[in-house]
Amino acid sequence: MPHIASLCANSHRLYTMADHKWTGSVKSLKGVILDMCGVLYDSGEGGGVPISGSVEAVKRLKESDLQLRFCTNETQATREKFVAKLQRMGFELSVSEVFSPAPAAVSILKERGLKPHLLVHDDLVPEFDSVDKTNPNCVVIGDAADKFSYKNLNDAFQVLIGMEKPVLFSLGRGRYYKETDGLKLDVGVYMKALEYACDVEAEVVGKPSAMFFQSVLNDMALQPHEVLMIGDDLVNDVGGAQQCGMKGLQVRTGKYRPSDERHPTVTADGYVDNLAAAVDIILRHRSQ
Amino acid sequence: MPHIASLCANSHRLYTMADHKWTGSVKSLKGVILDMCGVLYDSGEGGGVPISGSVEAVKRLKESDLQLRFCTNETQATREKFVAKLQRMGFELSVSEVFSPAPAAVSILKERGLKPHLLVHDDLVPEFDSVDKTNPNCVVIGDAADKFSYKNLNDAFQVLIGMEKPVLFSLGRGRYYKETDGLKLDVGVYMKALEYACDVEAEVVGKPSAMFFQSVLNDMALQPHEVLMIGDDLVNDVGGAQQCGMKGLQVRTGKYRPSDERHPTVTADGYVDNLAAAVDIILRHRSQ
Q1: Rounded to a whole number, what is the distance in Å from the CA of B153 to chain A's nearest CA?
Q2: Cβ pair B219, B69 in contact under 8 A
Q3: How close B226 gets to chain A, by Cα (Å)?
Q4: Among candidates B230, B217, B234, which has minimal Cα distance to B57?
Q5: In this predicted model, what pLDDT tens digit does every residue of A182-213 receive, in sequence order?
Q6: Read out DSSP for A194-220?
Q7: A198 min Cα distance to partner chain B (Å)
């Protein structure tokens, strides 16, 4: 990543402009949706570590008059285990406040009477306990990490290529995420692989799907323009929320890269250094 | 794969029409290029097995007045080992008659002073012995099969994402190939995965690259319209050859599927049941 100096100069200019744009609407906000990995914590060995100031920032939001929900594409654990991990890091949150792709996928499978072949992380499998998986007639992929072996991807491919009209669900479409030891390939990369292999388009469950964001808005009983999404993923968090009519803020933590601030198609309503800074600005503007 | 009966009826009709089209130009042919896997043999455990009649068909072509070359996207072995395997199956061919992506990639790397990170089959590595691989500034992927682990794909991704302008070479862009125990994912699937992860377009070395086909034509010192390509891959063999101005014949062996005969963008100049049938027709029309 060269030209860091010029990028930073550039991003500072954009920040100043964009900052003005989003803070103007802070007073009319009624709810905030937070992405989790890369905003609250950095994942990695042992479950990861909180990002400086984020535990306190969540606490401040909870004590405010804003509604708060959490929206993640995390698919390496059941929602229960995932929430327990965040609680151990010190975050105040409960399972009912967290929206993740697997429960949404289970609803869709049941509605449409589909039986999945799963290519997901071992720890996510229990989310699908209530779903019939005999004689599969679709494939569900999540962030399977080390389970994305050649054999396992080939097994999923065999199921799809044997169908008249292959049905592929992808739990998110992220390219990569940041762990404490570096960037790691995400489920979207393997979604693209299977899409190309079978000449099919996957149905994405999770961010940036509009249906997924809408389910969070429904739960808050709020209109899109009353809600701000904060995430580290420009396309899936910010762009997805904007498509739904929300404002979207990108934090410069997690998978953020300076080049995000000159992305050809998605421009955040604002860029802030981290969640603590975002919450500071929000609460300051609301108290003025 | 449903509607087999109607597809077969359909394909028979297309065959009759297309047959007429390609046989008209057989008398003016001066050379034939054969794809190997799926035309000469089916790969699988123990190296694979010859397709019925293909050993004799190659022998008949060699005894004719036509020039003959072999053009493969095989990247699971060095050209020497690969040719030795085919010779053990009974095929008459020599290393100098076989064109494969790895030697072509080595030429490109040397021309451009590039140092590759390799994600290829262990048995292909010796092809790159003469290339400096320290501090890699590009990635070369081939059909790595079981070596396409999450870790290895992630390692290749890390090299690419760390570069200002990622340079990715893919040895072919096939979706899948047929082994004796079923269809297997090919390198193109992983090329698409890395393209999406890094927002980059791979440079394809091998079929269907025009540069690759042209190197075979140069070796024969023939013009495209004087040469017929015979393959089982509609897009990479037939479509690639047609893009170069050759005629392209698809055999109904290997990875052939009935739906190929109603492909939206590529139509073969003819469809034949297997190589033996193709050679029969060619030699019969030339002797008339």
Answers
A1: 8
A2: yes
A3: 33
A4: B230
A5: 889 999 999 999 999 999 999 999 999 999 99
A6: HHHHHT--PEEESTT-HHHHHHHHHHH
A7: 8
CA distances from B259 to A196, B68, B169, B233 (A): 16, 29, 30, 12
Which residues are A116's β-sheet partners?
A138
A116 φ, ψ (degrees, to nearest 5)? -90, 145
The closest CB to that of A154, out of B164, B185, B196, belongs to B185
Mean pLDDT, residues B228-238 taken together: 96
- Surface-to-core class of residue B60, CB atoms within 10 Å of its CB (0-12 exposed, 13-18 middle, 19+ buried): middle
CA B179 from chain center: how many Å?
Answer: 15
Is the ipTM reported for this complex over the cut 0.90?
no
Contacts A182 to B, Cβ<8 Å: 158
Residue with tokens 């698409």: B192
CA distances (Å), origin B86, targets A125, B91, B237, B251: 45, 6, 20, 19
How much helix, strand and coil, in percent to the nearest 5, is found in chain A?
45, 20, 35
Q: What is the model's pLDDT at position B3?
A: 38
Q: Does B145 touch chain A (CB under 8 A)?
A: yes
For helices A150-161 and A187-198, angle between their N-to-C axes, nearest 10 degrees? 40
Phi, psi of B139 (to 5 degrees): -125, 135
For residue A186, the one-letter residue type is D
The residue written with tokens 């995965």 in the block is: B193
Q: Do A185 and B145 touch (CB under 8 A)?
A: no
Question: CB–CB of B157 and A164 under 8 A?
Answer: no
Helix (H, G, I), strand (E, B) or coil at A144: coil
On whether any CB of chain B is under 8 Å from the CB of A196, the answer is yes
Q: What is the rounded distance in angstroms from the CA atom of residue A180 to the CA atom of residue A165?
A: 40
Residues of B with CB below 8 A from A176's CB? 157, 161, 197
Neighboring chain B residues of A2 at a CB cutoff of 8 Å: 164
Give the per-residue pLDDT at A16: 45
Q: Which of B122, B178, B189 should be substituted to probe chain A, the one whose Cβ sees the most A Cβ atoms within 10 Å?
A: B189
Give the whole-angstrom CA distance, residue A205 versus residue B174: 28
| Model pTM score | 0.81
Determine the residue type at A27: K
Q: What's the average model confidence in pLDDT over A261-282?
A: 96
Considering only CB atoms, A189 lies closest to which of B145, B151, B196, namely B196
The dihedral through the CA atoms of A266, A268, A271, A274 has a sign that is negative
pLDDT (0 to 100) of residue A44: 78
